[in-house]
Amino acid sequence: MISDWQPTASLENMKLRARILAEIRGFFSACDVMEVETPLLSLAGATDPYLDSLTSHYQGPLFPAGQTVYLQTSPEFAMKRLLAAGSGSIYQICKAFRNGEAGRQHNPEFTMLEWYRPGFDHHVLMDEVEALIAVILKTAPARRLTYHDLFAEYVGLDPFDLSVEDACACLQARNIILPDMADAMIDDWLSLIMTHVIEPAFGVEPVFVYDFPASQAMLARVADAQPPVAQRFELYINGMELANGFYELADAAEQQRRFEADLQLRQQLGLPEIGMSHALIAALESGLPDCAGVALGVDRLLMLVAGAENIAEVLAFPLDSS
Predict the structure, then answer these.
(1) Closest Cα to residue 91, out of 151, 21, 156?
(2) Domains in the chain with CATH codes
(3) Alpha-carbon distance 130 to 132, whole Å?
(4) What is the mean pLDDT of residues 281-291?
(5) 195 pLDDT exceeds 80?
(6) pTM above the 0.70 mark?
(7) Percent of the chain whose predicted confidence (pLDDT) is above 90
(8) What phi, psi does 6 have (nearest 5°)?
(9) Virtual CA dihedral for 137, 114, 69, 102, nearest 10 degrees?
């Protein structure tokens, strides 16, 4: 019998959530961005090897023999299909799910704000993200650094020309115990430096990091530069990643190539096979408008507004108390 049935969030923080959601909707209404709703369940999951989808099993008239369905890690694929169908600027506040994620800043089920702006690139979208957080958090203007300049300033390394030896030395010099990295790629080392060295050094001011290595493009375009860079950004406040934005890839063939590369890597890593989104490929083939999009963690935003140390303080019932 469960005796501790009370919500982990205070009534004050639940009221705060309601107010912040209303402010977000007011912001987008003033910008003439339409709110949309797409399904939480899909026949296709996230192929990204660094994301673990939660799954369920449907059996009924649609698939009498049974069908694995995925709880969305983000509404991105469905929203891009709406964009290709002519929706114009859209946003969504929805639940997203990621298996295996739990901790001070993570719950397997969380609230995501995602929006797309035709005619924007990632730089213009950074302006709009900055405007939104200024409304919610009353923040000062954000600092903007390229990924290259960020690593040069904080750890004195070139992330586009990093050796494993330099990465190890950087971490060991700061007394960071290295995990087993025998099969790690350079991006894994960069991620470790980012999370264990750079992020903790950020202050309370907003910081945009943009122009990532092309190997970290995800669903972003890659600029033909030397070296090539992924046209995407991340927003950090008080050392916490709050938003992840992209100048969206519109090339269907390239998107399929990336999905297939993800699936091959998943197989090499012994990860579950994931069904790629053929519907997204078809939408891109029909024509995705030139656009930028961003996903922002609403629960983390609430943590910043409330001064909360743990995500459970802004959730009524995190998974371990549900």
Answers:
(1) 21
(2) 11-142+205-321 (3.30.930.10)
(3) 5
(4) 98
(5) yes
(6) yes
(7) 90
(8) -70, 150
(9) -20
